[in-house]
Write a structure and sequence with these properties.
The complex is a heterodimer of chains A (242) and B (186).
Chain A (H helix, E strand, L loop, with lengths): L7 H8 L5 H12 L2 H20 L18 H27 L8 E3 L7 H5 E8 L4 H20 L3 E8 L15 H10 L3 E6 H9 L10 E4 L2 H10 L3 E4 L1
Parallel strand pairs in A: 2-3, 2-6, 3-4, 4-5
Antiparallel strand pairs in A: 1-6
Helix pairs in contact in A: 1-3
Chain B lengths: L1 H31 L2 H17 L10 H19 L6 H10 L4 H8 L1 H11 L2 H11 L5 H8 L3 H22 L5 H5 L5
Helix pairs in contact in B: 1-2, 1-3, 2-3, 3-8, 6-9, 7-9, 8-9
The chains are: A alpha/beta (242), B mainly alpha (186).
Chain lengths: 242, 186
């Protein structure tokens, strides 16, 4: 068998160990007698080893770390959502009792305090607002104010309270109309940190209607209830509407 | 014992897949020359293998079976992203970086040269060459994996090796004139 008789396919098969025993023996005999064939086989073997070497250590691909959701994460999220809902429900139910009409208070507290100020951090400042002559509301206004002052005093915390009345709420502080003259006087004596104010505009309106408005002693007159409330809110006071 | 072996089989398969994974990756990389794509292909192959484990009747054919799944995955990939693979851009990228120092350095490294040469082969030849050389599979196994006649395997392999010889010569670093003048004096 001469060099030109040996095909590339045959040599490839020889190099790749694809020949059966008889073919291999024949191939060895032929190749050993022919230098050119030896070179060709050598070249093919070298090529094969080169390819093996080139891919012996392929570059390792590291996947970007992705935070995988564990299988139970969805259930956990659902549970957390349920708990949150339950918490919301309970807190809503509890606060409802404080703000409901049935409790005869109808109190809307909008706490717009700015606790950044040092003064506010030391002294709590709250303005109560009453604008109706409904006896229950007026009583509630005094009850809430007194309760608050008493609580703060008991806990030895500083508090500054103003009670401002406008529209029909001024009846609370009119000596000729108010049913709580004595109580307000006692409160005034007892709590030096409590001020009673009426809306100047309301008083002016009543006077212009011909009413003789007599205020309780120590009752201050603000230019306007809205202005006073607005001013207090800007100063960081808390606002409670009765 | 047979029942026990049935229980153990899934665990055995996972162990075998773990062991063969680096080999799958090596072949996938030699086909695609893209580490991320190779990793994706291997992952997909293993998923398909686990899903269709019952189709493998003869466990001794596991390797061939896995490589045929890998070949299918690669074909599916090219089919899926046919419009996105812009050959012209790839060629531009190659030629645009031909004379950079980095490229000159990598050209001097034999591993890069061989990989570049393999990458330039047509996919059919590349697959046959790597399966035969890296995995040392028989021609019959390669024919079965790629779903082609054994004669085609032999002819592709032959053409691939002829092309490799030429490409490796082309990619060999050119000796500069200055380098040629250096002589040993002792």
């Amino acid at each position: 068998m001469q060099d030109h008789d040996i095909s590339d396919e045959f040599l490839n098969s020889f190099v790749d160990n694809q020949l059966d025993s008889a073919e291999k023996t024949q191939a060895f005999d032929t190749i050993s007698q022919d230098e050119t064939l030896k070179d060709r086989v050598c070249e093919l073997r070298g090529l094969k080893e080169l390819v093996q070497h080139a891919y012996s250590q392929p570059p390792i691909y590291t996947r970007p770390t992705v935070r995988q959701l564990r299988p139970w994460t969805k259930q956990l999220q659902a549970l957390a959502a349920c708990l949150l809902l339950l918490l919301g429900g309970i807190s809503g139910w509890m606060t409802h009792s404080w703000t409901s009409r049935q409790n005869n208070h109808e109190m809307t507290a909008i706490m717009q305090s700015t606790p950044s100020s040092d003064a506010i951090a030391d002294t709590r400042k709250i303005i109560f607002h009453v604008n109706t002559s409904n006896p229950a509301r007026l009583k509630a206004a005094l009850d809430e104010t007194e309760g608050l002052l008493e609580n703060y005093r008991r806990e030895n915390h500083k508090v500054q309270v103003e009670l401002i009345a406008n529209q029909r709420g001024v009846d609370l502080l009119r000596s000729d109309v108010s049913a709580y003259t004595k109580r307000i006087s006692v409160m005034h004596e007892k709590y030096p940190n409590l001020n009673f104010l009426v809306c100047g505009k309301t008083i002016g309106k009543l006077k212009s209607n011909g009413e003789n408005v007599q205020l309780l002693p120590h009752t201050g007159v603000a230019s306007s209830a809205i202005d006073q409330i607005n001013k207090r809110l800007h100063e960081g006071w808390g606002y409670v509407r009765i | 014992m047979k029942i026990l072996s049935l229980f153990c089989r899934s665990n055995d398969l996972q162990d075998q897949l773990d062991n063969i994974r680096p080999r799958l990756y090596r072949v996938a990389y030699s086909w695609s020359h893209n580490a991320a794509l190779a990793d994706d292909l291997v992952q997909e192959t293993l998923i398909k293998a686990l899903k269709n484990a019952s189709q493998l009747r003869d466990p001794s054919l596991l390797n061939s079976w896995l490589f045929s799944i890998l070949a299918n995955c690669l074909r599916d990939h090219f089919r899926q992203y046919k419009e996105m693979d812009d050959i012209e851009e790839l060629e531009d990228y190659r030629y645009a970086h031909e004379n950079t120092p980095e490229n000159a350095h990598s050209q001097s490294q034999i591993v890069s040269r061989v990989r570049d040469a393999v990458a330039k082969l047509p996919l059919g030849q590349r697959q046959v060459l790597t399966l035969v050389d890296l995995e040392e599979l028989t021609y019959i196994e390669v024919a079965s994996i790629l779903g082609i006649p054994i004669g085609t395997v032999m002819s592709r392999l032959c053409r691939a090796r002829v092309a490799m010889k030429i490409l490796l010569k082309e990619l060999a670093p050119q000796q500069t004139a200055a380098a040629g003048q250096i002589r040993r004096i002792k």
